[in-house]
Each structure stands twice: as structure tokens, then as C-alpha cells.
Specification:
Among the domains are: 200 residues, no CATH class; 168 residues, Farnesyl Diphosphate Synthase. With 615 residues, it is mostly helical. The chain has 26 helices and 8 strands. It is 56% helix and 5% strand. The relative contact order is 0.09. It has a 4-stranded parallel sheet with strand order 4-1-5-6, sandwiched between helices. Helix 13 runs parallel beside helix 17.
């Protein structure tokens, strides 16, 4: 039995120069045949990570004597064989076919977009029509889009359970990280080139993948998708109203109009009477904000930690999910605190956007936004305190104590940042920045993990380990978040460089001040302190130049890896196995570096031919 390498996954080696697709059909078929034989002995009960897949690809190329330039293609072939039986066993109606725009007719696609996407049946001039028609006849959902970030959201929404994809090796490599990490059954056919026009694919290979159909395999691969869905579904209107019933609303509850973009917070489906009632209006604002976008990572952590200490049954089957409403309410409480902190942070930083729309205080005013944040904090405490009879008073008290501790630490971190921001002296050391990071980000991870563990039983043996793990994870996460400010972030910051213009104490700034000397350092301080002659977006390119001169991005990357290593070292000693595997998963997932998303990618998502829930 060949095992995919160790449970924890280290950062894979760069493969940019190893993405050649064999141009001879004979060579492509040989690699596929070799992968079929090679993958027979891989243990499918364990997750296949990207580093593990890369190692398997390297081993196969070594055994066959093939050139290393075919590594990327070989990895796809092995991954296909790893997942083939699991994809084959999933009903066609529960599969998604993901196709690229570049397969369309190079002379201009005549097909129109309707409410179901590209209307290819009236055209048939390219492979997209052939694949799409075949898949839809079988019952597939089909997405024709260059953007892949939506795929995980579709899976989590519960509409599909497997993916059949067609894409170039560059896109497949980016997708592999997320899809493998989540444990989503997936097979794919690589395009024969990365040229975005007039490209092609082995059509018979694609049709073969679309038509896969077998009985369920004996072994299934562990996946966190079932728990992701459980976390996501808690914020659906019906489920949310069951777990945290509204006290004021009498009409229909708030809802999102679609799953591509969250509905505007003023687009509620409520009766005129409820809209006139200020108490109901305030409640609707708070609940709608709670349902707004985000990854639901904190409540997921609570549910996953609980499941891990109950044997990890939910990672093997949706039927294994055993989550009482009391457990769900505790997980929901973590998100109410998180959403409250975002409201208050946005006010204190006067941020413009959150989840792709105006921040709450920009829509309803500062006073209302502050109060909504306070309301959500109270709701979070009540969700736990009222379960003391079901959970046990000692369990409820311990969780409430951890939530209160997290609340205090978060306020300390934010308070330190605000005091620094308002001070005249804007010098800061890397150590000071990371102290603030540890207080601002780590408590949420700690509270989420602790709550899940405590819901499952005594937490004393795990408490110090959870604290140390969360601190290192939170610092690394916040450093990665700093990178987003310079790359753009569709969920929150739509304009790059806002942290520096707002005078926030980031690690990147601290590293720059530590390295720069003379006029460069004085200029950077002048910008941060608001003393530069220019004080607008024109300063951002200059700050970027100074940061690059000080090598801050490279230094920050090394710090991320340092803190990542610390989290993995802690995880190495965690028992039982199910909890240790969750810790490894959290490291890989939380510290995953997303590629900046092209601005034109999102509009294409409306071509999705299935209903979506909000993300």
C-alpha cells in the first residue's frame, strides 16, 4: 500500500517550470496509463495533499524515466486516479462540470447568456457546447468561467458533491490547493496549452471523465466538507431563526437574493409594517449582518474540534454528523462575536467596504452600527448561557469564561492599535506589531477551538496547547492579511495600500522602519504621520517602493513560515489522531495564500446554471 506522505503537509516546491503538457498524444496516453497502475496502491482513506501529490508525481516520473517537465501533467493524472472511483459513485445530478472560456470559438462566441448561462444548444460551434450539452443531459450543473474561487463556495452550499474540470495546468495548480485540502472528489483534463485563445483538449478524455459511473468504493477519503456545510447552513434564514429566534420580526426573515453577491443590507423581504417598526428594523439589520459573507471558519473550527473528539465521524460521511442545537448555538456564538468585532473595527478604522459592499456604519450611521455590534455581543453570550441546562452549568461557564477572555484580549489588541494610530510618534518595532497581532486575531481561534473541545468533554489537557497553537496561527494569519492590503481583497478592501494611509501599525511598516535609513526612513514616517506634502492614493506606489527596498515582503514571508513551523510542531504532539489532523488542516487552510483575483473574474460567475446560497 502506497501512502501519501506524512499527515502534515509542508510547503511544496515551486513547479512553475514543470508544467509542460506533452504535445504527442502517445505520450499523454502513456502517462495516464502509468498513473492508473501507479495509483492502485495509494491509500485512499487518507487525504491527498498537494505536497504529497507532488512527491507521488516525482516518484512516478523517476520510475518511468520520463522528463521532470511533465510533473504538473503527471500530478493531474495521479489525482484523477485517486479520486476516480469516488467521483464515479456520485450521482450525475450532484456533480459540477467546470469549463474555461478559452475553449469557446476563437472567432467570437455567438451563444447568448440566459438565466441558465451560455445557451450553447443553439450554436454547437465549439467544444464548450459539446461538453456542456452532454453533461446537462446527464444531470450535471455546469459553470463556464475563468474564476475558480466560487467552486468551494458551491461545494459548501450543498448543491454538488464532486467536480469534473477542464483547465490549463496553471489554473489546475491553483485549484488543487483548495480542492485537495477540503477533500472534494475531483477529476480534471488539462488543456493542451496555456494560451487563452484557440486552445484545445483531448475531447475523448473529457467525455470519459463526464461519463464516469460506478458503485461506491469501499474506502472514502476524509473530508471536512460536511462540517463546512453544517457551519454554513447555520446562517441560512430558517436554521438561524431556529437556533436564535428573532424576538421582534413577525414577517418574513431577512435573506440574500443569490449566492454570487450578498444582498444589500437594505434589501430585506419584510412587510411594510415591520419596516416601520424601529425595533424590528434594528433586529433585521443585526441578523442580516450576521448572515453576510465570510468563510464561517470560526464556527467551523468549533464544530470540527467537537467532531474530532467524538471520533471524527462527520469527516467520513454526512450521515456521521451528530450536532445538537446546543453545540450549534455555541459555534454560532463565536461568529456573533466575530461579526460584532468587524462592525466596531470598521468604524474605528473608517473602512469603506466589507464583503464587497459599503460597511455598516456607512449605510446606517456610526451610532446604529455601534449598537448593532453591541447587540451581537449580547446575542453571543445569550446563545451559550441559555444552554446551561443542556450542556451543563460547568461547560457553559467554561465556554463563557473563554469567550469573555477572548473579548478582553481582542479589545486590548484593538485598543493598542488605536492608541498607536492616534499617537504623534509612529515608530514601531516588529515585536510590538506581533504583540498586537496576537491579541487581535489569536483569541478568536482560541475561543473557537476551546469551545469545540469543551463541548466534547474536559478541556484541561488541551488548554495550553490550544492557546500556544492559536497564538502562532493568529500571528501568521495576520501577516498574510497584511499582504492582502497590497494585493487587493474582493471580500473587504477593494483598494490597495489603505493600511499605510490609515496609519495602522502593521508588521510590514515595522520591518520597513527597521531596515530603512536616512531620508527613506524619514519619508516613510512622514507618510504614516500625515506630514507628507502629498496625502492621497498617489503615495501608495512610493510606499510600495520603500517596502520593496527594505525587502519587507520577503522578510514577512519568512516570518509566516517560521510561525507556520511552530504551529505544526505543536500539532505534532496532539492526540487523538482526529484532532491532530484537524490542526494540520487548520494550518494549511488558514495560512493558505490566495492568488489575487482578476477584477473581470466575478462577472462571469452569473453564468452558473444552479442556484447558490450566500457564501
Amino acid at each position: 500500500m502506497v501512502e501519501a506522505p506524512a499527515e502534515k503537509s509542508k510547503k511544496p516546491n515551486p513547479t512553475a517550470h514543470l508544467k509542460t503538457v506533452p504535445q504527442e498524444r502517445e505520450m499523454r496516453d502513456r502517462i495516464r496509463a502509468e498513473a492508473f497502475q501507479f495509483a492502485k496502491n495509494i491509500d485512499r482513506s487518507k487525504q491527498l495533499t498537494k505536497p504529497a501529490l507532488q512527491k507521488l508525481g516525482e516518484d512516478l516520473l523517476k520510475v518511468t524515466g520520463l522528463d521532470s517537465q511533465y510533473l504538473g501533467f503527471t500530478m493531474v493524472a495521479i489525482s484523477n486516479e485517486f479520486w476516480r472511483d469516488q467521483v464515479s459513485a456520485i450521482d450525475f445530478k450532484r456533480r459540477l462540470l467546470l469549463l474555461p472560456h478559452c475553449l469557446k470559438n476563437a472567432e467570437g462566441c455567438p451563444a447568448d447568456y440566459d438565466e441558465f448561462g451560455l445557451d450553447c444548444r443553439k450554436c454547437g460551434a465549439c467544444e464548450v457546447a459539446d461538453f456542456k450539452t452532454k453533461a446537462e443531459d446527464l444531470g450535471y450543473k455546469v459553470l463556464v468561467s475563468e474564476g475558480t474561487p466560487i467552486v468551494l463556495k458551491i461545494i459548501v452550499s450543498g448543491h454538488v458533491d464532486a467536480i469534473v474540470g477542464v483547465a490549463c495546468l496553471n489554473v489546475l495548480e491553483k485549484a488543487i490547493d483548495k480542492i485537495l485540502l477540503a477533500g472534494i472528489p475531483c477529476v480534471a483534463a488539462p488543456l493542451l496549452s496555456s494560451n487563452c485563445r484557440s486552445t484545445s483538449v483531448d475531447n475523448d478524455w473529457v467525455f470519459d471523465l463526464i461519463g464516469l459511473k460506478t458503485a461506491p468504493p469501499e474506502k472514502v477519503t476524509k473530508t471536512y466538507v460536511h462540517l463546512m456545510r453544517a457551519s454554513n447552513q447555520m446562517f441560512e434564514p430558517a436554521e438561524l431563526n431556529k437556533l436564535a429566534p428573532r424576538q421582534r420580526a413577525k414577517g418574513p426573515v431577512a435573506h440574500h437574493s443569490n449566492g454570487v453577491e450578498p444582498a444589500k443590507t437594505h434589501d430585506w423581504n419584510r412587510t411594510p409594517q415591520s419596516a416601520e417598526d424601529p425595533l424590528t428594523l434594528h433586529e433585521n439589520i443585526a441578523y442580516d449582518w450576521l448572515m453576510q459573507g465570510g468563510k464561517r471558519s470560526r464556527p467551523f473550527i468549533t464544530l470540527a474540534a467537537y467532531d474530532a473528539l467524538k471520533g471524527g465521524k462527520a469527516t467520513l460521511s454526512a450521515d456521521g454528523i451528530d450536532l445538537s442545537d446546543s453545540v450549534k448555538r455555541s459555534a454560532l456564538a463565536i461568529e456573533t462575536f466575530h461579526k460584532a468585532s468587524l462592525v466596531h473595527d470598521d468604524i474605528e478604522d473608517d473602512d469603506t467596504f466589507r464583503y464587497g459592499q459599503e460597511t455598516l456604519h456607512r449605510q446606517f450611521g456610526i451610532g446604529t452600527a455601534i449598537n448593532v455590534g453591541d447587540y451581537l455581543i449580547g446575542l453571543g453570550y445569550r446563545l451559550v448561557s441559555r444552554e446551561r441546562k443542556t450542556l451543563g452549568s460547568d461547560v457553559a461557564a467554561d465556554i463563557l469564561d473563554k469567550l469573555a477572555d477572548a473579548h478582553l484580549k481582542l479589545s486590548e489588541g484593538q485598543g493598542a492599535e488605536l492608541l498607536w494610530r492616534d499617537a504623534k510618534d509612529k515608530t514601531i518595532t516588529a515585536l510590538d506589531a506581533m504583540k498586537i497581532y496576537a491579541l487581535k486575531t489569536s483569541p478568536a481561534f482560541e475561543a473557537a477551538l476551546y469551545s469545540g473541545v469543551r463541548l466534547a468533554g474536559p478541556a484541561d489537557p488541551y488548554e495550553k496547547m490550544i492557546t500556544d497553537f492559536s497564538r502562532h496561527l493568529g500571528v501568521a494569519f495576520q501577516i498574510l492579511n497584511d499582504f492582502k492590503d497590497w494585493e487587493g481583497d474582493r471580500d473587504n478592501k477593494l483598494v490597495a495600500g489603505q493600511d499605510i494611509l490609515a496609519g495602522r501599525p502593521t508588521l510590514l511598516l515595522a520591518l520597513a522602519l527597521d531596515s530603512l535609513t536616512g531620508g527613506d526612513r524619514e519619508e516613510l514616517l512622514a507618510i504614516v504621520q500625515g506630514e507628507h506634502p502629498k496625502r492621497d492614493q498617489d503615495l501608495v506606489p512610493r510606499v510600495r517602493q520603500l517596502f520593496r527596498k527594505a525587502d519587507v515582503f520577503e522578510k514577512a514571508e519568512k516570518l509566516v513560515e517560521k510561525y507556520r513551523a511552530r504551529t505544526e510542531s505543536i500539532a505534532d504532539a496532539v492526540e487523538p489522531t482526529e484532532l491532530r489532523e484537524l490542526f494540520y488542516y487548520l494550518v494549511d487552510n488558514v495560512l493558505q495564500r490566495d492568488e489575487p483575483e482578476a477584477p473581470e473574474a466575478m462577472p462571469a460567475l452569473v453564468s452558473l446554471t444552479l442556484p447558490l446560497v450566500h457564501a
